[in-house]
């Protein structure tokens, strides 16, 4: 039993090789280290269950990927390299050889280590002590150690000391980065942590001296480089963190209005960084080369252009039409720059990056916030998790407290229960009202679309009119003003519907309003896109791309102005009315959903506009910057913290999803139509003279075909990117993987249900440890990234307790079969868990 | 480096935030806290000073927070305790660490269980004693009824963490920006 401890990993060779692997392959390395780390903690399965079994999803303890045979094979293959293999060098494991507990029949040969772990369990209690601030903290969780405490308190202290030693040795054996993380994450005081760390370092130097013959200079050098690189990276990330915008403003807003309002500003900031990135990309790869090659602009500037985007701006780098289709060459060094290719590749790569970063943030946010959505309810979580520690303002604290007390009173009076007991008639009436309202809102959206389409056709005819140029330009503003007005007024109309409808839960009303608004906004953008692609693009106008660019420019500018007006009238005037004239209304609240949807709307427009006006992100940056400050001032002056509970993290996930699904995917399809189906204008822009934009790429491929060295690029283009079959196969593979994962999740759901039933069955019994272990088991399975199956091995040792305590033996006998079933379930669950080797990145998504 | 590298390696912050935190600590009592920590002075700031920080002064749980994180359990904090506190309350801390300390904060009588009396205190702090005694009682019963998985009439750490796993907002609300 002593020999399994730490297995082969105490071998310094091993240690250093793995330290070097950090940089080479994080993935592989982490699973390796986990194995390691586990051996340092496995004596304390209860600690595991505390630390790893619950919400823990960081890289240190994801045991889901561990296979039972893994550890075993290591110890089998290198039994002699273990310096602790000898019981004399590590006497702490000498006691209790009597723990020859054989596991239930569900174990097989590969499970050897667990049997041994079971025998180590009695050490666990004292070991767990070292993980706690106070001594008595965890003892209750470890009945056998409690016994030990009673029976021989003398050896107890000794054990504790030995176990700390053991922990230190284990920590010494893992890489420095993992060790730092492990130490940081133990719930202990700084002093104890530092103690442990110093001891670990001492241990490490001792060992490296003793085994210095095995480390050559090169490995040490590499090791040092890796370490300093780590330190450098840490420092850099922190400086970047410092550079972050508005750290202080966000803190003030959070302090005064809580996390919910803060989430709007965080979202705004996230979009801003997105735009800064796209501006940098476009500016450096498209605009700068063009600026080098372009001639002077001789159009006059009269100020109205700032609103309309026409006139002077037509002949600037703002629009597609200004860019040249030639290759820009520098005569000195004969290097050339092909604008066509630069344009299409910059925009294409930008969209690909956007796609992946959106998918990444979305997935992360889902994983974090929807761990277990189906059981999120009840006052327990509400009461104990509700306090927002961000709030630091005295008034806000008082307001929050009184809001809380009204909420609690409301939930006690059980208003919701009354609603549930409706007669069939009332129910039908309610459903009819819902249907009516939905019809009405969809009808309004359709009417808006028709109106917008009418105005846009009108807009096109205006351009052909014979009036003066200035009048023409002014007339083009009609369409954006109409669109912005609709965007501003219809949501209020939808909000009024909320008064007619009575939803069972306020959150349903919120979702309904959000969905209706999304319908409206997406429909308007959709009809505009239809107009641009179908009417403008086929209208034989000179440079239709620039016309679309101007349209989008106007839409964004006017929408920005309306946004400012809305926060003036909607919040400032509303507060004046609420405080001076009509006291009943009171101070307005900040409408998070409406404001976030506005942001999503403008971002969609900007994405579409990127192709037609590559500098559109610059405008977005300016407008977001101003919006941030205007909203902040308006919020501070006019608004009060929201009264209702706002589930910030789930709503953020929803908003990112909305930004991805109708918005970004819609933009992608519009782009696809433009690039593959539409003929670019004949006289201007980088693609003049081609039948479709994609021809630029295929033409380039023809040129490349003549060079033998770049044949592989051509091959990739024809066989992968340009081939339908490849995408077909890819789609099939993705679908199969999705289906497999779906099945895994289904299987786990069944497992969770079964284990829940087990818990319920057990809860009538008075035998605590079993229940607790089963509980932990369920928790770790519910959490898909937990250390499934680990916690379970608590049981064999605790099964001994009845012999010493007064519990009747019959009781334990009754428990055994049930437990072995649970064990079997647990093992199966763990095997399922092994399917998913997830990278457990614990960095939080902060949009 | 006034703090020494050992601190750097033991808490979740990286260096610039650490020095920021150090100055925050020092600003609480410039006459007591030396600028250099190289010779490891034994300085402790009393609870009155810690509780008057802008980040804590209006928090209804400020006394509990200070007690939980101070080594003497009375709210008097050394620099280490102070760093510890803000590293747990930072956004870098993992969910379990946060949950563990949140549990300790709500465990007013330090018996490692959140029992009914603890819950009553919590409710009173959350609502500034605006509820009647019966209402408080009802709420506490409801909470225990829902969150207690092993039917012992009180919430253990496991129960608490089980509950936290279902409250996604917890991570962002148990967080103090410094």
UniProtKB/TrEMBL annotation, chain A:
Entry membrane topology: Multi-pass membrane protein
One CC-aspect GO term: plasma membrane
Recorded superkingdom: Eukaryota
All residue ranges annotated as the TMC domain in the record: 543-649
Transmembrane stretches, start-end: 270-292, 341-360, 435-455, 475-498, 510-533, 553-573, 604-630, 650-675, 716-742
Keyword presence, Membrane: yes
Compositionally biased region (Polar residues): 74-92
Keywords: Membrane, Transmembrane, Transmembrane helix
InterPro entries tied to this protein: TMC (IPR038900), TMC_dom (IPR012496)
Primary location class: membrane
Family: Belongs to the TMC family.
PANTHER family: TRANSMEMBRANE CHANNEL-LIKE PROTEIN 5, TRANSMEMBRANE CHANNEL-RELATED
Protein name: Transmembrane channel-like protein
From TrEMBL, chain B:
Keywords for this protein: Calcium, Magnesium, Metal-binding, Repeat
GO molecular function terms attached to this record: calcium ion binding; magnesium ion binding
CDD domains per UniProt: EFh
The keyword Calcium appears for this protein: yes
UniProt keyword annotation of Metal-binding present: yes
Pfam families, alphabetized: EF-hand_7
Domain EF-hand: 94-129, 135-170
Gene Ontology terms describing biological process: calcium ion homeostasis
Protein name (Swiss-Prot/TrEMBL): Calcium and integrin binding family member 3
Organism the protein comes from: Gopherus evgoodei (Goodes thornscrub tortoise)
């Amino acid at each position: 039993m002593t020999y399994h401890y730490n297995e082969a990993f105490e071998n310094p060779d091993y240690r250093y090789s793995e330290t070097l692997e950090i940089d080479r392959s994080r993935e592989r390395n982490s699973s390796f280290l986990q194995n390691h780390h586990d051996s340092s903690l496995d004596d304390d399965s209860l600690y595991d269950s505390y630390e790893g079994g619950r919400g823990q999803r960081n890289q240190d303890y994801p045991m889901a990927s561990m296979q039972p045979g893994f550890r075993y094979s290591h110890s089998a293959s290198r039994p002699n390299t273990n310096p602790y293999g000898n019981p004399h060098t590590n006497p702490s494991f000498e006691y209790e050889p009597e723990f020859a507990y054989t596991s239930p029949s569900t174990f097989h040969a590969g499970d050897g280590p667990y049997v041994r772990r079971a025998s180590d369990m009695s050490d666990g209690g004292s070991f767990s002590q070292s993980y706690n601030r106070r001594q008595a903290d965890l003892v209750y969780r470890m009945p056998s150690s409690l016994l030990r405490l009673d029976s021989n308190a003398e050896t107890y202290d000794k054990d504790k000391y030995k176990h700390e030693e053991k922990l230190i040795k284990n920590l010494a054996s893992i890489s420095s980065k993992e060790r730092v993380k492990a130490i940081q994450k133990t719930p202990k005081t700084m002093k104890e942590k530092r103690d442990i760390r110093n001891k670990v370092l001492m241990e490490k130097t001792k060992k490296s001296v003793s085994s210095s013959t095995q480390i050559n200079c090169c490995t040490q050098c590499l090791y040092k480089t890796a370490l300093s690189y780590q330190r450098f990276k840490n420092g850099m990330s922190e400086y970047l963190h410092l550079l972050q915008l508005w750290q202080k403003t966000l803190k003030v807003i959070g302090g005064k209005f809580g996390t919910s309002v803060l989430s709007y500003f965080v979202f705004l900031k996230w979009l801003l960084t997105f735009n800064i990135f796209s501006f940098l990309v476009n500016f450096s790869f498209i605009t700068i080369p063009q600026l080098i090659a372009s001639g002077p602009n001789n159009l006059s500037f009269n100020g109205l252009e700032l609103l309309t985007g026409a006139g002077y701006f037509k002949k600037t780098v703002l629009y597609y039409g200004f860019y040249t289709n030639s290759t820009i060459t520098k005569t000195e060094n004969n290097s050339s720059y092909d604008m066509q290719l630069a344009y299409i590749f910059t925009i294409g790569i930008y969209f690909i990056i956007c796609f992946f970063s959106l998918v990444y943030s979305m997935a992360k946010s889902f994983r974090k916030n929807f761990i277990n959505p189906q059981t999120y309810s009840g006052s327990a979580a509400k009461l104990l998790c509700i306090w927002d520690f961000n709030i630091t303002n005295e008034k806000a604290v008082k307001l929050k407290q009184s809001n809380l007390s009204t909420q609690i009173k409301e939930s006690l009076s059980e208003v919701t229960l009354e609603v549930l007991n409706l007669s069939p008639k009332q129910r039908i009436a309610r459903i009819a009202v819902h249907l009516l309202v939905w019809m009405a809102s969809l009808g309004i959206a359709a009417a808006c679309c028709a109106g917008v389409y009418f105005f846009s056709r009108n807009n096109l005819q205006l351009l052909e009119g014979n009036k003066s140029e200035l009048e023409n330009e002014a007339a083009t503003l009609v369409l954006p003003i109409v669109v912005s007005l609709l965007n501003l007024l219809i949501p209020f109309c939808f909000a009024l519907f909320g008064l007619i409808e009575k939803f069972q839960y306020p959150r349903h009303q919120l979702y309904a309003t959000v969905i209706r608004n999304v319908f409206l906004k997406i429909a308007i953008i959709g009809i505009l896109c239809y107009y641009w692609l179908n009417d403008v693009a086929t209208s034989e106008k000179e440079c239709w791309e620039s016309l679309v660019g101007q349209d989008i420019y106007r839409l964004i500018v006017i929408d920005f102005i309306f946004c400012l007006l809305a926060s003036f009238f909607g919040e400032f005037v509303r507060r004046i009315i609420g405080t001076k004239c009509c006291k009943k209304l009171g101070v307005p609240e900040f409408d998070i959903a409406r404001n976030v949807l506005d942001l999503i709307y403008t971002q969609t427009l900007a994405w579409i506009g990127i192709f037609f006006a590559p500098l559109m992100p610059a405008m977005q940056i300016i407008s977001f910057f101003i919006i941030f400050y205007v909203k902040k001032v308006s919020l501070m002056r006019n608004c009060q913290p929201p009264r209702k509970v706002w589930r910030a993290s789930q709503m953020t996930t929803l908003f990112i999803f909305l930004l991805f699904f109708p918005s970004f995917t819609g933009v992608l399809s519009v782009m696809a139509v433009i690039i593959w189906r539409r003929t670019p204008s004949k006289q201007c822009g980088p693609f003049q003279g081609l039948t479709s934009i994609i021809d630029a790429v295929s033409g380039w491929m023809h040129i490349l075909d003549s060079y033998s060295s770049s044949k592989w690029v051509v091959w990739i283009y024809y066989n992968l990117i340009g081939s339908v079959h490849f995408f077909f196969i890819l789609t099939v593979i993705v679908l199969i993987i999705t289906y497999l994962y779906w099945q895994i999740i289904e299987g786990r759901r069944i497992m969770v249900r079964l284990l829940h039933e087990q818990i319920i069955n057990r809860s009538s019994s008075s035998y605590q440890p079993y229940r607790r272990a089963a509980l932990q088991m369920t928790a770790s399975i519910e959490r898909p990234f937990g250390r499934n199956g680990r916690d379970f091995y608590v049981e064999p040792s605790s099964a001994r307790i009845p012999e010493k305590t007064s519990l009747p033996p019959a009781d334990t006998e009754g428990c055994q079969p049930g437990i072995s079933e649970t064990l079997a379930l647990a093992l199966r669950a763990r095997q399922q868990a092994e399917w998913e080797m997830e990278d457990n990145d614990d960095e939080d998504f902060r949009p | 480096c006034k703090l020494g590298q050992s601190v750097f390696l033991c808490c979740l912050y990286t260096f610039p935030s650490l020095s920021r935190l150090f100055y925050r600590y020092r600003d609480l009592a410039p006459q007591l806290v030396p600028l250099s920590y190289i010779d490891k002075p034994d300085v402790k700031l009393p609870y009155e000073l810690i509780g008057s920080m802008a980040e804590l002064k209006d928090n209804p749980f400020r006394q509990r927070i200070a007690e939980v994180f101070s080594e003497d359990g009375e709210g008097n904090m050394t620099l280490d305790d102070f760093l510890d506190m803000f590293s747990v309350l930072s956004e870098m801390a993992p969910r379990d660490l946060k949950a563990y300390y949140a549990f300790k904060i709500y465990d007013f009588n330090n018996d490692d269980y959140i029992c009914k009396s603890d819950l009553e205190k919590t409710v009173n702090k959350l609502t500034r004693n605006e509820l009647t005694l019966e209402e408080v009682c009802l709420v506490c019963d409801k909470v225990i009824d829902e969150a207690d998985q092993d039917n012992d009439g009180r919430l253990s750490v496991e129960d608490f963490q089980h509950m936290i796993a279902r409250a996604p907002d917890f991570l962002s609300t148990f967080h103090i920006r410094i």
